[in-house]
């Protein structure tokens, strides 16, 4: 399944159906043992060649950030809140889709703004979605509370070897895990496409518990602050400089040996890579690290600019590097 | 061509203030079969002339064709572009926008900003200013410098989307929706007689001071004029007295507006059952009407407005039926103007 198709599917936390369905179908083409667990995760299992080989879990999250309708105004506008973290400053004047219903996120025109308005960030309490409804009753009928809303944007090629899309975080990981699933390795492999990452690493909790892995590798999209007015110390990783290997983030610490092994393999096989600088973000590695008796984890990320917006940007070379490093790792002595 | 198709196509075309050629050529071509003569002024306003049957006055209808946007003011070391504003672009709409940079090639750009987690608590409460933002072209600085130079135009993202109840959202409904009203009126006038000489003018450079209307009005030398522009439609966060209902046209009252001509327009509207709301502009109207009023020896002006939500954004929202009614009203008004128009002007 190509990256464009995956990114253009809508699947915010709790509303992953469309992504789950697509991934389930794609997984079953290449793997006999695929099921959906109680958290809505898609779990694909490939038995190892030998009994002694370590159990390896791989994970990427299916969900993305999005919006949900929480109320309606008298004149037919929709009140909404974010699912996951979306800076309200990146959503003014953007197109959204609520199922078949199209809408826009409007705000007071510049001509009518006071100096105070121009300074102050519009928060979710002041923003609304306009679907063209005449009144409250029509808005309630078309988009009742609980309706999910998504940035209505396409996946486009961009610049040199880059793409721009919503949901690169973490459909890049899903895309690469589907590629990995087509291969055969010696180790026992449990590939987890998990739900609810953006609202607190929830889907991965159950997946990690059930996987009982010795080693877990998490594929992520992570924020690259490498463009514009970013002070040098905040540039945690750079787009088009290879897959980013984390030594630690705010939710988990990489197993030192796995971390070093990843860097060694990348160097040896000339796979473009970088060490993620600084300690930011958090992801499903936390769930795996703490599941049952605990498991060694490491995170491989594709650097993404403008993450959690309608227009995140990443390099296809970095996507391929993430795949190549994971593939090389799964063939290495570390997991024989 | 249906009005929706016209608008869908014309709102897409490049026409930043001072660079309206592409949009202007399209409008000229659309006007051509509907009038006796079309020409473009040196400032890229399009004048469509439709001859009257007799001694009627010269009437000029003006709707502006230019759009707000950005331009490149600096290329940074990392290849990102700093932006200047052409007209009043609200910086709040820019972060995350996909823009078109018109360099040696047309390039897709993404407007980026410092991510929130590296901002201080204080900074997070403030909107980004244009100077805090930069356009990312996704390519090395060296390549950027080959393809882009300072002064190149940056066009805002464009989508033309139909919402519920015949409401549409697009960039540059301000003011090409009103150019579409002129187009619709010209279509309706085919085969109908009118005494007045009619000049349908798509004006340039309104957003940077109405230079197009000023010079086109000088050239046309009309007896009186009707400016067509957008006004603010009501939203919950906007003051009631500054807005009109989305559905139904609007015509302003005030010192810049000739009251007898306005009454004439309102009478025609009543007769034709076209809804026109009234609003008040205590001073300048912020439209082509302002400069046209003091062109040559003075041109009496009326203003007809299309209510629009989210003005100066990429999601300007209007009611298509109201737009069509505007076309019907302008056609009916054109036919109702007689050569006695001036008799009661100041009585």
What is the percent of helical residues of chain A? Answer: 25-40%
Number of helices of chain B: 9
Tell me the distance between the termini of chain A: 29 Å
Largest β sheet strand count, sense and barrel closure of chain A: 8 strands, mixed
**Based on the structure given, which CATH architecture of the largest domain in chain B is correct?**
3-Layer(aba) Sandwich
Fold blueprint:
The complex is a heterodimer of chains A (336) and B (347).
Chain A: H1 3-8, H2 17-30, E1 33-36, E2 42-46, E3 55-61, E4 66-72, E5 78-83, E6 95-98, E7 101-106, H3 115-119, E8 128-130, H4 136-142, E9 148-151, E10 156-158, E11 162-165, H5 168-180, E12 188-194, H6 203-211, E13 215-223, E14 243-245, H7 256-268, E15 273-275, H8 285-290, E16 296-304, E17 312-315, H9 316-330
Chain B: H1 3-10, H2 21-31, E1 37-40, E2 46-50, E3 58-64, E4 69-75, E5 81-86, E6 98-102, E7 106-112, H3 121-124, E8 134-136, H4 141-147, E9 153-155, E10 160-162, E11 167-170, H5 173-189, E12 197-203, H6 211-220, E13 224-232, E14 249-253, H7 259-271, E15 276-280, H8 288-292, E16 301-308, E17 316-319, H9 320-336
Parallel strand pairs in B: 3-12, 3-13, 13-16, 14-15
Antiparallel strand pairs in B: 1-2, 2-12, 4-5, 4-9, 6-7, 6-9, 7-8, 10-11, 11-17, 14-16
Helix pairs in contact in B: 1-5, 5-9, 7-9
Walkthrough of the structure:
- The complex is a heterodimer of chains A (336) and B (347).
- Chain A has 336 residues and is an alpha+beta fold.
- In chain A, strands 1-2-12-3-13-16-14-15 form an eight-stranded mixed sheet, sandwiched between helices. A six-stranded antiparallel sheet of chain A has the order 5-4-9-6-7-8.
- In chain A, strand 10 and strand 11 form a beta hairpin.
- In chain A, helix 7 crosses helix 9.
- Chain A has nine helices and 17 strands.
- Chain B is α+β, with helices and mostly antiparallel strands and 347 residues long.
- Chain B folds into two domains: 3-67 and 159-336, 3-Layer(aba) Sandwich (Aminopeptidase), CATH 3.40.630.10; 69-155, Peptidase M42, domain 2 (Elongation Factor Tu (Ef-tu), domain 3, Beta Barrel), CATH 2.40.30.40.
- In chain B, the strands form three sheets. Chain B has an eight-stranded mixed sheet, sandwiched between helices. Chain B has a six-stranded antiparallel sheet with strand order 5-4-9-6-7-8. Chain B has a three-stranded antiparallel sheet with strand order 10-11-17.
- In chain B, a hairpin with a 3-residue loop joins strand 6 (98-102) and strand 7 (106-112).
């Amino acid at each position: 399944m190509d990256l464009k198709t995956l990114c253009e599917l809508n699947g915010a936390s709790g509303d992953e159906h469309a992504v789950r369905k697509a991934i389930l179908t794609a997984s079953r083409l290449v793997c006999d043992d695929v099921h959906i667990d109680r958290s809505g995760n898609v779990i694909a299992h490939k038995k190892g060649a030998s009994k002694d080989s370590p159990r390896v879990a791989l994970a990427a999250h299916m969900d993305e950030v999005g919006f949900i309708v929480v109320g309606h105004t008298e004149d037919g506008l929709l009140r909404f809140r974010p699912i996951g973290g979306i800076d309200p400053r990146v959503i003014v004047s953007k197109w959204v889709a609520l199922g078949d219903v199209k809408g826009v996120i409007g705000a007071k025109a510049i001509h009518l703004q006071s100096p105070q308005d121009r300074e102050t960030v519009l928060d979710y309490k002041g923003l609304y979605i306009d679907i063209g409804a005449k009144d409250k009753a029509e808005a309630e009928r078309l988009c009742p509370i609980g309706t999910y809303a998504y940035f209505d944007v396409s996946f486009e090629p961009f610049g040199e070897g880059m793409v721009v899309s919503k949901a690169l975080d973490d459909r890049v990981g899903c895309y690469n895990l589907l590629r990995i699933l087509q291969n055969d390795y010696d180790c026992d492999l449990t590939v987890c496409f998990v739900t609810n990452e953006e609202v607190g690493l929830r889907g991965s909790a159950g997946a990690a518990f059930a996987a009982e892995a010795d080693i877990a590798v998490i594929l992520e999209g992570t924020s690259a602050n490498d463009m514009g007015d970013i002070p040098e110390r905040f540039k945690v990783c750079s787009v088009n400089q290879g897959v980013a290997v984390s030594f630690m983030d705010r939710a988990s610490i990489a197993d030192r040996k796995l971390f070093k092994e990843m860097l060694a393999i990348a160097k040896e096989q000339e796979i473009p890579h970088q060490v993620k600088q600084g300690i930011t973000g958090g992801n499903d590695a936390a769930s795996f690290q703490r599941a049952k008796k605990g498991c060694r984890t490491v995170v491989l990320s594709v650097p993404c600019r403008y993450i959690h917006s309608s227009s995140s940007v990443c390099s296809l070379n970095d996507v391929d590097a993430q795949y190549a490093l994971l593939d090389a790792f799964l063939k290495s002595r570390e997991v024989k | 061509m249906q009005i929706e198709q016209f608008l869908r196509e014309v709102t897409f075309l490049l026409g930043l203030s001072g660079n309206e050629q592409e949009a202007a050529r399209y409008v000229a071509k659309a006007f051509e079969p509907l009038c006796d003569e079309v020409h473009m002024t040196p400032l890229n306003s399009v004048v469509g002339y439709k001859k009257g049957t007799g001694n009627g006055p010269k009437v000029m209808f003006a709707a502006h064709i230019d759009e707000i946007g950005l331009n490149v003011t600096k290329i940074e070391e990392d290849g990102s572009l700093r932006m200047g504003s052409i007209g009043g672009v609200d910086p709040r709409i820019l972060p995350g926008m996909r823009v078109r940079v018109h360099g040696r090639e047309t390039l897709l750009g993404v407007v980026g900003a410092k991510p929130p987690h590296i901002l201080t608590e204080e900074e997070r409460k403030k909107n980004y200013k244009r100077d805090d933002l930069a356009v990312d072209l996704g390519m090395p600085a060296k390549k950027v410098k080959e393809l882009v130079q300072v002064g190149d135009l940056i066009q805002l993202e464009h989508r033309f989307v139909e919402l519920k109840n015949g409401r549409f959202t697009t960039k540059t409904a301000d003011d090409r929706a009103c150019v579409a009203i002129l187009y619709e009126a010209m279509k309706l006038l085919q085969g109908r007689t009118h005494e007045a000489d009619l000049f349908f003018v798509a004006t340039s450079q309104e957003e940077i001071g109405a230079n197009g209307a000023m010079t086109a009005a000088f050239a046309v030398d009309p007896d009186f004029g009707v400016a067509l522009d957008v006004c603010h439609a009501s939203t919950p966060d906007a003051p009631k007295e500054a807005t009109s209902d989305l559905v139904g046209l609007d015509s302003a009252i005030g010192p810049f507006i000739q009251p007898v001509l306005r009454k004439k327009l309102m009478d025609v509207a009543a007769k034709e059952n076209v809804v026109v709301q009234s609003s008040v502009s205590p001073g300048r109207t912020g439209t082509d009407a302002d400069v046209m009023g003091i062109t040559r020896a003075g041109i009496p002006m009326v203003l007809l407005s299309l209510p629009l939500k989210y003005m100066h954004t990429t999601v300007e929202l209007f009611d298509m039926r109201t737009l069509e009614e505007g076309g019907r009203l302008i056609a009916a008004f054109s036919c109702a103007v007689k050569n006695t128009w001036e008799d009661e002007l100041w009585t």
